Amino acid sequence: MNQELTPIDDEQAIEIFKALSNQTRVSILQMLKDPENNFSSQAHVTKDEGFEGGICVSDIRSKIGISQSTTSQYLTILLQSGLVEMKRIGQWTYYRRNEETMKKLEKYIGLKI
Amino acid sequence: MNQELTPIDDEQAIEIFKALSNQTRVSILQMLKDPENNFSSQAHVTKDEGFEGGICVSDIRSKIGISQSTTSQYLTILLQSGLVEMKRIGQWTYYRRNEETMKKLEKYIGLKI
DNA sequence: TAGAAATATCGCAAATTATAGATATGCATT
DNA sequence: AATGCATATCTATAATTTGCGATATTTCTA
User: Fold this and answer.
1) How distant, in Å, are the alpha carbons of A69, B78, B104 from that of B81?
2) CA-closest candidate to residue A15, choices A80, A84, A89
3) HTH arsR-type domain: from which residue to which, for each copy (chains A, B) (predicted)?
4) SS3 of B41, please?
5) pLDDT for B59-96, tens place per residue?
């Protein structure tokens, strides 16, 4: 079946590259690759809510060691570029990787650059 | 035989992402994909010198329409990130894409991010 | 309904990047 | 050796990004 992905355009690609040109934001993405391992609790919460692998802002913050406001801003940048997706559940906001964007980015580099 | 490429590390990847987070620099890379087509003359020069596909700075400049100093600076940024390589021949400096870095970047995104 | 906790947004100073003009350097020609 | 190109580097200013504390907003709970 293999649904074709709509490719990203130059503008979106550049927004992604900007998001990736910061070590802390790249580290956040890398941490989110293995939520179970990097973040002890909560796995069941997001799973039950249909948002498996989602991690809340404060967990990311304590793992990375930057301020709350910077954490929130970085996640917004990652969200707007499409590299992560989020879901609010109660007072928590959970973020997880958007693997589809990763694949699109890989294709963009292979084909368009 | 397929020689394995030494992978790039986070630091180099971020330098590459910075280089790519500018529309003009991305355009330069895209133009260099098809040197024959985008740049009329000179093809034979670089070929004879063992640097096929190389384009000189002033040709790139006139195609893109930015100042000479900005062109030179952008090419230096692309060079330092490894996305292009260069060869000086006489009074000209020729630049061409470094496809190996492209492949490494694709792998980096698929495996490390 | 008054706190408390989690997150987002605002406003700011510091650092970095963008871009260009001016100048320097290297090479070729006379 | 003087001049003319091609390119690189220097210097400066405007624009953007970084990262934080302060404040606002949302949601939960007593």
Assistant:
1) 31, 5, 12
2) A80
3) 5-113
4) coil
5) 999 999 999 999 999 999 999 999 999 999 999 999 99
ipTM metric: 0.94
Q: Within a domain: residue A28? A: yes
Q: Which domain holds residue B32?
A: 10-101
Q: Which of A17, A98, A112 to mutate to test the interface with B (most CBs of B within 10 A)?
A: A17
Nearest Cα to Cα of residue B84 among B49, B37, B35, B38: B35
Residue B5 lies in a domain: no
The nearest alpha carbon in chain B to A32 belongs to B113
Q: What's the pTM value of the predicted model, to 2 decimals?
A: 0.94
Strands laid side by side in the B92-97 sheet: B55-56, B92-97, B84-89
- Maximum separation of any 2 CA atoms in chain B, in Å: 44
Q: What is the CATH number of the domain that holds B72?
A: 1.10.10.10
